[in-house]
Amino acid sequence: MNKGLAAVILAAGKGTRMKSTLPKVMHPLCGEPMLYYPLEAARQADFRQLKVVVGHGADVVRERFSSPDLTWVVQSDQLGTGHALMCAADSLRGYSGPLLLLCGDVPLLKTETIEHLRDFHAREKAVVTVLTAQMPNPHGYGRIIRDGEQVMGIVEERDATDLQREITEINTGTYMFDAAFVLSALRGLNKNNAQGEYYLTDVVAAAVAAGKTTRALCVADPTEVMGVNDRCQLAEAEVLMRWKINSDLMYAGISMTDPTTVYIDNGVELGVDTQLHPNVHLRGKTSIGKNCIIETGVVVVDSQIGDGVHLKAGSAIEESQVGPACKIGPMAHLRPGTVLSGNNKIGNYVETKKAVFGEGSQASHLTYVGDAEVGRNVNFGCGAITCNYDGVNKYKTIIEDDVFIGSDTQFVAPVTIGRNSLIAAGSTITKDVPANALALSRSNQRVIDGWRLRKQKKSED
Fold first, then answer.
1. How far apart are CA 347 and CA 454, in angstroms?
2. Strand 379-380 to 397-399 pairing
3. Distance between CA atoms of 184 and 181, rounded to whole angstroms?
4. Is 365 a catalytic residue?
5. Which tens digit of pLDDT belongs to each residue from 166-203?
6. Helix (H, G, I), strand (E, B), or coil: what is residue 137?
7. pLDDT tens for residues 13-41?
8. Is-contact 321 336, C-beta < 8 A?
9. Rounded distance between C-alpha atoms, residue 111 and residue 36, angstroms
10. Residue 9 near residue 35 (C-beta atoms within 8 A)
11. What are the structural domains of the chain?
12. CB contact set of 267 (below 8 Å; sequence gap of 6+)
């Protein structure tokens, strides 16, 4: 058996109230599936043996969270939380230390709270410690029955008396157990209750009957232990988590005009003195450098942005690398594979894809550059495009350093433009251009004197 503390994470539920074919724990929250958060919190609290109980959509969950430190346990029939832990019993054979139990649909639980629960459980020498919360409206939750510090039992809402329903201390579904005790106690559970399920809460009564110590640790902030059972609760959890992400970033030196309208995924990195305007979305594996300005409506996905970059309103950047001191937009679109070396300008209504720009090169407006290798200090005039697709295959355009490209130029790839050349406006370039050359391919201009007057006179006749 692997060394280290053990935890069981319950992730088998279908989540009927989500009204979705997606397993409940796979619903996204700030850029990660919900299950990511309890798993990561357990790891950060130094739990090294992680047993994940799956059922509905098990293959989807396993595929997303494939990791050597995870052991997968299948609960084919969902017969309650006690039954879920029964299913995990074989994977815990030989383990006798403290056992943490988490719910996969409680994503806001902090690592610090798990550590506090673990340490409190050890100090009290308890066989069961329940994480609890005080709820002004406890409807739907199991109630904690105490005798001083000793927890005498947990009564589910459906099984509670009227007097018990007045209790406001509730069970959060998170526990620390003595593993040897709880695995033994599971064998005595039955389904003699209103829901016909194996209640894990009955383990508390079994501990009391055996004369063992049982304890409860109450969290200071009940929102930390909120469960997510429907899409309204998912949205509420997202608001809470986003505020935590944004407030942490602001304390770390990031400015936000209106943090309630800034959407930053978990794990996104930002440098100090960066300014975020309203309705900014930073998603996935994104990093933003220092002293950047990100204006309204910018969306950045899985991209790395250097120091001193200005992302102007409405720009979208996907799977791209933007070097220092670049100016992007407004309304620019950097598609996957774009690399800007630094001091580049990609202006309004410019689209790039699989394009590498050398330092100082720019395309200021209404330009498409795809499948291209662009040198240093290249200037694209308005309306220039690389024609990279012939309907079957994609081809590359290579433009060397110091090239000036006139407006409305088309490069029909594959084609190479030599350094320090000039491409005249309105040209369609189908052949390579040598260095230091002028290339133009438009027809000669004709001027027919008096043509307009003759045409008008003919119409009048």
1. 44
2. unpaired
3. 5
4. yes
5. 999 999 999 999 999 999 999 998 888 777 889 898 99
6. coil
7. 888 999 999 999 999 999 999 999 999 99
8. no
9. 13
10. yes
11. 5-225 (3.90.550.10), 254-439 (2.160.10.10)
12. 31, 32, 285
